[in-house]
Amino acid sequence: MTRSKARQTKKALVPWLFLLPAVVFLATFLLYPLLSALRISFSEYNFVYSEKPVFNGLTNYIELFQDRHFMISLKNTAYYTVVFFPLFILLALFLALLLNSKIRGINAFQAAILLPIVVPLSLAGVMFTWIFSQDFGILNHILANVLHLPHLQRFWLGDVETAMNALIAVGLWKYTGFGIILFLAGLKAIPVELYEAAKVDGVNGWQNLIYITLPNLKGSFSLVGIWGIIQAIKVYDQVVVMTNGGPGTATSVLYLYAWKNAFTFFNMGKGQAIAFFTAVLAIVISIVFQVLLRPEKG
Amino acid sequence: MSRRARVVVALSVLLMMLSSLGAVSAQTLKVTAEAWYYNKYKLEEAAARFQEDHPGVEFEWSKAGDFEVAPLMLAWSRDRYVADIAIVASPSEAVAFQARGLLHDFEDVLVGKYAKENWLEGFLEQCTMDGKVYAIPTDAEVMTLVGRRDFAAEAGLTDADGYIIPPKDFDELYEYLQKLTVKDETGRTVRYGMTVNWSPEYMCYAYFSGIQAMRGTIYDDEGNLDFSSPEAVELLRFWQRGVDEGLISTSSLVEHSGPRNDMQSGLACILWEDHARVIEIGHVVGPENMQIVPIPGSEENGTVSYTMSLMIPTSAEHPELAKQFVLEQLNAEWFAHDLMDRWGKLLGLKEHVEAKMDDLIWKTVFQLADNSVGLPKTVDHAKMVDIMTAEIHNMLKMQQTPEETLARIREQIAPLNLEPLG
Amino acid sequence: MRYLSSNQKLPRALLFLLGVLVSLIVLSPIIWIILTSFKDTKEIYAVPLTVWPRKFVWTNYLTVINGLPEFPIYFVNTVKATLGTLLLVLPLSAAAGYAMGRYDFPGKTAVNAFIIAVLAIPYLVFLVPIYIMEDILGLLDTNLGLILPYTALNLPLAILIMQNSYREIPSELEDSARIDGANAFQTWLLVMTPLVITGLAAVAIFTFVAVWEEYMFARTLMFSTSAHTLSVGLPSLQVESKTWAYGTLSAALALSLLPISVVFVVLRKYFIEGVLRGSVKG
To pair with C50 at 20 to 30 A between CA atoms, which of A269, B108, B149, C70? Predict the structure, then answer.
């Protein structure tokens, strides 16, 4: 082997050594099951009543688009994503900026605002079901008796118009903290010198934000953005606990429908097909999002 | 050490060895049930009593959440020993296990005192497939109306003794609702005439109990589950109109326990759910205020009932012992009566209910139970329930008419496999 | 906001008020739950509602403690699963993130694509194959049987976060370390990693929470009570299928938030220290 080729191989070797342990895990516990599940999505397979999976090509996928319930789930998931995503990013950014400042009590605020992260979503779901309850919920009670706005009361989880929004609110409550943390990590990484140099130049607060902070958060935006989109499309926990897709099909989302098909109806083939469809959708949208962020690199 | 001390030590060691030997040869019965079951049923006491008669038997309890059928299916299909007794599913779900040959049947033990004719037919039949009983019914219920006598008396709907006069048909029931509902000046309902449990867990029972009461059967003229008869339309219209006019509460569209809460807090006068609520709600508002009112028509035509299934899988390590426990304690009179008194739920043996026939409530329930039908066990049962629930909820949200609802249901269940199994 | 100079009093006062307001709004559901946990059943279901308990009772807490005798077992299992997963995820993702963030090498795009793909896939997809795999390997009902899949499931996001953190570091530091004669491993461990403490803290928090509250895998892979985790044990408090007694539930929530909050506060301090260390590096 020539010297440069040896060095090339050695160059490739080093990063792979770092990568190897993680890759072993990913390959064993994720890649292999994934391929296995993928194969099932291309088969006809009822876990209880079928002898074994029977390959049927794209049938499961094609039939999805003829399935009314699936199309409704798709629409609902789209709505959830379109509303959740921008709110998530804006709230996370805003609160991260707030929590990054040197004001009194910042520790307490951090603890309070980030606390929802550690509340299990299933328990949070039950908690909010109680809060949103039409007759026994504190929200309606406050609207009617404390703020004296009784006409604002709603059957939050039972009205088609409000159910999804209630679920989005719970998702935001729980997950914004994650976005805040990711943004904080990015904010802390911005070198102080940049701000000090700007101060010397007489730049004021807003300009700092637009010309220094935001551009340096590109990486974080990308990460938070991807994470946010994926969480939105994968929404499941609070839906199953709070409405289980109801009323009617008003809050039926993709992941929930996939779950029902796989583990309630035992139609594994169809369930996995929906799951993979959801994943592809999330990936495509993330890629689009990344591409949209990129052109500014000039 | 002195000689005496040495003897004492030697004897102690011997005793410990002997007792550990006993522990090694003990048999352990593992029971898995949904977590709430342990709150309602005195399983530990049943175990203690069983141990008196069968020394050396230990028990191990496992509490499950609601997502239990799939893990069990996974485990049992791979012949994994998870439990000797499992109480986790309705017969419609349990039939899946039976279809895969994963359950022991109870044929060999249903003799003598436990012979099949001594069980409430409506319940046992649901747990039978191909003529064999594959699960023991437990936590059984019949669908009926449960009414508040005090509210009914206010509205002038009671007889001389203060008992609610049962409405003879749905039209009369509707008039009752109109009289029982109370609205405030803005027209907002402050007390509903009725609350119906339309949550996914109850939807098919609520719907088919109405059909059964009206028609005497849950099937249409072609032998399929009825989603087309004029009575079906009438039933849905009754519900939709009731919701539209503010007479029926819609709390169950969101919460499984909505109707029960409505009754306990006095927000509704009549409950359309399972009979056991009459006891539960009675604990809160006073038993003298509660009465079972048959769904109009159900006294002649019967009603729908459902149970939980107590199963013994083929992967069980002590199936025979498990069967003994199930019959001797989990169907003992003390167990049944405790259940009936505290929660109103039923077990399968007739004699337990017959013992309480002097109470009007149990007399009514017995008649309803013996005369009840269960839903057929089919491959795509869960899917059908899902479709029904979605469409009827849409209707109750005023998004489609009863006729459209039924048409949509028929259209979506057409490709499903709804052939009764066994 | 960092860029505001410290002698601007008005904005700082406003920010303080904002902080208080937001904190209260965010915490209000939890405060409500804690208040509910001290009410008795009749009061909870009374119409109209009361906000402050008319009478403080401990019955709900007693019901929880009596109703969950296996609480210590569940707790220990959850702790073991969490610690085990953290012990694997942190070093593995730091190493992998370093490679992905600072090197170009054949196969990098494939790995990157796979990681994002996995993030997007609903967990249910992996459930049955992993179950079968663990059944064959005899890992069902063991602590390792949860730690291994949890590690794999949490690695993708962890790697992404670390990748991002390592990428931010200016290359001069790496170069000067090399000039000083450090090999790749030493550079990574001694120079680069201390600079990404915030990233590691983020990974730690994410992973901790994910493992702590995970239900699906815990329920399916661990069927004996002795192997259950907290999230699997909590549904035991359901009064009936899918029905919760809100009094008991509130007490359970309050109790389970207690240890988590303590851990959270500790981790948060670590977070801030990392900040100080990071900003001094210049």
Answer: B149
Whether A120 has its CB under 8 Å from any CB of chain B: the answer is no
Query: Average pLDDT, whole number, for chain B?
Result: 88
Model's pTM, two decimal places? 0.84
In DSSP terms, B158 is beta-bridged to: B164
Q: Where are the domains of chain C?
A: 69-278
pLDDT computed for residue B311 by the predictor: 92
Answer with the one of B358, B373, B388 that is the final residue of a domain.
B373
Asked if A42 contacts A57 with a C-beta cutoff of 8 angstroms, the reply is: yes
What pLDDT sits at residue C82? 92
What span, in angstroms and rounded, lies between the C-alpha atoms of B60 and A140?
Answer: 44
Structural domain boundaries enclosing B273: 143-303+378-413
Given CB atoms, is A175 within the 8 Å cutoff of chain C? no
C-alpha triplet C180, C183, C187: angle, nearest 5°:
75
Task: Let me know whether B285 and B392 are in one domain.
Answer: yes
Q: How many CB pairs under 8 A join B and C?
A: 71
Higher pLDDT pick, C145 / C40: C145
How far from A207 is each of A195, A210, C7, C108, CA to CA, in Å? 11, 5, 18, 37
Q: How many domains does chain B have?
A: 2
The correct answer on CATH 1.10.3720.10 for the domain covering C69-278 is: yes
**Which pLDDT tens digit goes with each residue over A171-216?**
999 999 888 888 887 787 777 777 777 777 776 666 777 777 787 7
Cβ of residue B39 closer than 8 Å to a chain C Cβ:
yes
* The CATH homologous superfamily of the domain defined by A58-292: MetI-like (1.10.3720.10)
**Closest-CA distance of chain B to residue C45, Å:** 7
Residue C228 CA to residue C190 CA, distance in Å, equals 39
| Per-window interface: A 135-174 vs C, CB < 8 A | 135-136, 138, 141, 145, 173
Residue A65 neighbours by CB distance under 10 Å? 10
